[in-house]
Specification:
GO molecular function, one term: catalytic activity
Strand order of the largest sheet: 1-2-3-4-6-8-11
Family: Belongs to the enoyl-CoA hydratase/isomerase family.
Protein name: Enoyl-CoA hydratase/carnithine racemase
CATH architecture: Alpha-Beta Complex
Distance between the termini: 60 Å
Number of helices: 12
CATH topology: 2-enoyl-CoA Hydratase, Chain A, domain 1
Largest sheet: 7 strands, mixed
Pfam family, one: ECH_1
Structural class: alpha/beta
Organism: Rhodococcus jostii
Length: 272
């Protein structure tokens, strides 16, 4: 194995759902749970947080690219896995802390993070995509805050991230109505950096990553920090409020009904 290209030594769980390769200063993190449309259970969310926090202290890494294998970027939390565990996977507060750790790691990293979004970015998957410093999507991609459809509220900092980019009115529409936002519209509203044909997305992201990796590391770090501190001042408060609210909702009858309806492919009947 060359010194320029190395496979990351992530815990065993990652080999089955998270691929990490570092080459020429670019760390590529691929969520690869295609049978679950790249939904993240607690173990894989924790592993993703580990990768990102470990990268913060690795001077060989100058840029990170997060992508999803197959037809989706990430479809959020793996609710099927949680349902199969019968609520025994972890307390809601632990699940929320795991997701918040990922979001905070992306924001706090000293190097830029690029999200390469192909297909669906749903729930916390949308939050991860929008937390990245640069988000590029394929023409067929879309963002979806599906939380309300299953009796939950937005999390992963999305209640602050989206409003900071496109304003309260548009963010409220996404959060309360649970509608898809196509990538082209997301780009036109300033929510993501750009949209590419599906066949050209990876090449474009690679070109941007190479440019950043060859740039002045310290200047890029300080620029990222200044932009983050100027635009995401509400993020920590949002994550705290989301944890409190979501922890309550995850115990609610509406959430049980929403998940049951989703898994059995029928409309939910909230408040029955």
């Amino acid at each position: 194995m060359s010194a320029r290209r190395q496979l990351s030594t992530i815990p065993a769980i990652a080999s089955g759902g998270l691929r990490v390769v570092t080459e020429d200063g670019i760390r590529r993190v691929t969520i690869d749970r295609q049978d679950r449309m790249n939904a993240l259970d607690l173990a894989h969310m924790t592993a993703l947080g580990d990768v990102l926090t470990d990268t913060a202290t690795d001077p060989s890494v100058r840029v990170i690219v997060i992508s999803g294998a197959g037809r989706a970027f990430c479809t959020g939390a793996d609710l099927a896995a949680a349902a199969a565990a019968g609520g025994r996977e972890a307390a809601p507060e632990v699940v929320m802390d795991s997701a918040a750790r990922v979001i905070r790691a992306v924001v706090d990293l000293p190097v830029p993070v690029i999200a390469q979004v192909g297909g669906a970015a749903v729930g916390v998957g949308a939050s991860i995509a929008l937390t990245a410093d640069l988000t590029y999507a394929s023409e067929d991609a879309y963002l979806l805050l599906a939380f309300v459809n299953i009796g939950l509220m937005p999390d992963g900092g999305s209640s602050a991230l989206i409003a900071a980019s496109i304003g309260r009115a548009r963010a409220t529409r996404m959060a309360l109505l649970g509608e898809r936002l196509p990538a082209l519209q997301a780009a036109s509203e300033g929510l993501i950096a750009g949209v590419l044909p599906a066949e050209g997305l990876a090449a474009h992201v690679d070109a941007v990553a190479v440019r950043l990796a060859r740039g002045p590391r310290r200047a890029i770090e300080l620029t990222k920090r200044a932009l983050t501190q100027s635009t995401l001042t509400a993020l920590d408060g949002a994550l705290d409020r989301e944890k409190t609210g979501q922890s309550e909702l995850l115990h609610s009858p509406d959430f049980l009904e929403g998940v049951t309806a989703m898994l059995t492919k029928r409309p939910p009947n909230f408040g029955a």
